[in-house]
Design goal:
Elements: E1 4-6, H1 7-13, H2 18-27, E2 32-35, E3 38-42, H3 43-49, E4 50-53, E5 56-59, H4 69-147
Antiparallel strand pairs: 1-3, 2-3, 4-5
Length: 161
């Protein structure tokens, strides 16, 4: 079954210039006809003559080169395989980043716990130091009252041991 398309529409669909389409008609690569003053191209012959790859058009001469189905299947298979590998690597990366984030989170919590414990220990040691200083002051007053002397922790100048 033949499907006829206007030349300008075919050129835009095939991503070709109007001049290139006319060249292909002249060389016999495309079937064409003129009806009521409108130039038409057979879309069926166009699909055999033009194969799109990305945004570029690849011209295939029907008489010399044909697209091998096996080649197309292998290419698609390769693309799908590479896509699966990319998805797998992406999932592995995400898993790795998640485990690293969990490790860092745990390390942060542990550091925070150690900080809180150290803070409590410092507070306890300050209380003990304060209590020890108060006890020393008390003992100094007690000694002074009992003996009438003041404890001098520094050795007097001029005394050699």
């Amino acid at each position: 079954m033949e499907t006829w398309v206007k030349i300008d529409e075919f050129a835009s669909l095939a991503n070709l210039t109007r001049e290139r389409v006319l060249e292909m008609v002249a060389s016999g690569e495309l079937k064409s006809k003129q009806e009521n003053g409108v130039f038409l191209i057979d879309a069926g012959s166009g699909t055999k003559a033009v194969v799109h790859t990305g945004s570029n058009a690849v011209m295939i001469d029907n008489s010399n080169v044909g697209v091998d189905n096996e080649f197309v299947e292998k290419t698609i298979g390769t693309i799908l395989s590479l896509h699966e590998k990319v998805i797998s690597a992406k999932e592995e990366t995400i898993t790795s980043v998640k485990s690293e984030n969990q490790f860092l989170k745990d390390a942060l919590f542990n550091t925070q716990e150690v900080y809180e414990d150290d803070k409590k220990t410092i507070a306890i040691l300050r209380e003990q130091l304060k209590a020890a200083q108060e006890e020393i002051e008390f003992l100094k007053r007690k000694y002074k009252m009992m003996w009438g002397k003041v404890i001098n922790t520094k050795p007097k100048e001029g005394m050699d041991d």
